[in-house]
Amino acid sequence: MQHLITTSDFTKDEIIELFDDAKMFRDLQSSDCLKGKLIVTLFFENSTRTRSSFEIAAKRLGAEVVSLDVGSSSRSKGETIFDTVANINAMKPDAIVIRHSECGLPESLKEHVNCPILNAGDGYNAHPTQALLDLFTILDHFNNNVEGKKVAIVGDVKTSRVASSDSKLLPRFGIEPIFVAPDHFKSEDESIRQVTLLSEVIDEVDVVMSLRTQLERHSQVYYTSMQEYAKDYCITKEIFKDRDLILLHPGPVNRNIDIDDEMLLDPRSKVLQQVSNGVAVRMAVLKKLIK
């Protein structure tokens, strides 16, 4: 039985095969390859894109989905997360998709289940399917010619599980991540090149990925307003000019803070393409782990 806790759970060859399926699913409306299977989604953090993407992916494959309301579950009565998952497992689902604020929690649940666990995000640790769909989007745009490409990941990289997962996955395919952040949002990962402003690397990168500033994950206030942050880190047409770049964002986008309105409408923005690709990639992941 295989799980997806981090992107390292899949070999490079497995990821390439996964993307072959994703290409096929991107053009299909539905499939019945998981007909009769049951998938439980268990989100302890708010989510719109990831949760709906997983659920749509499952239903497009013919699976049934049970989405648990964590707020009204036995967790509110004092039940531990381990007992919650063990009880769900006793009902014999074919997979459990889980998001939780605690780093490392999905990994610790593996011994409590008899079905695959898919990590939909754990704290600032990992978000493997987001990293996979980001890579899929980049590979697709560059027709798989990505050796030596560079991606500027801009914003709150310190608490971003997306930055964490992308920075581990992209180099496996010859892509260099560069973190762009103010000092208080810089990563402690010394293996990643880091700069303060996008202008320092804009002429050498091929992709710019903007991130949401996750103020809820910081213990102190760094800005009097988000507009103050946006002065240096909002992605604008003025920054991009006519450069041959693509723009990504894992969502949700804080308009005119992360990316301005004009750039979101620019053809170089692949933000909505990421959303579409996310369904196809998650369909491929579910098929791989369940079928």
Automatic annotation (TrEMBL):
One of its GO terms (molecular function) is aspartate carbamoyltransferase activity. Keywords: Pyrimidine biosynthesis, Transferase. GO terms for biological process: 'de novo' pyrimidine nucleobase biosynthetic process; 'de novo' UMP biosynthetic process; amino acid metabolic process. Pfam families: OTCace (PF00185), OTCace_N (PF02729). Pathway: Pyrimidine metabolism; UMP biosynthesis via de novo pathway; (S)-dihydroorotate from bicarbonate: step 2/3. PROSITE patterns: CARBAMOYLTRANSFERASE (PS00097). Residues 147-287 form the Aspartate/ornithine carbamoyltransferase Asp/Orn-binding domain. Catalyzes the condensation of carbamoyl phosphate and aspartate to form carbamoyl aspartate and inorganic phosphate, the committed step in the de novo pyrimidine nucleotide biosynthesis pathway. Residues 2-138 form the Aspartate/ornithine carbamoyltransferase carbamoyl-P binding domain. HAMAP family: Asp_carb_tr. This is Aspartate carbamoyltransferase. GO terms for cellular component: cytosol. It catalyses: carbamoyl phosphate + L-aspartate = N-carbamoyl-L-aspartate + phosphate + H(+). Belongs to the aspartate/ornithine carbamoyltransferase superfamily. ATCase family. It comes from Malaciobacter molluscorum LMG 25693.
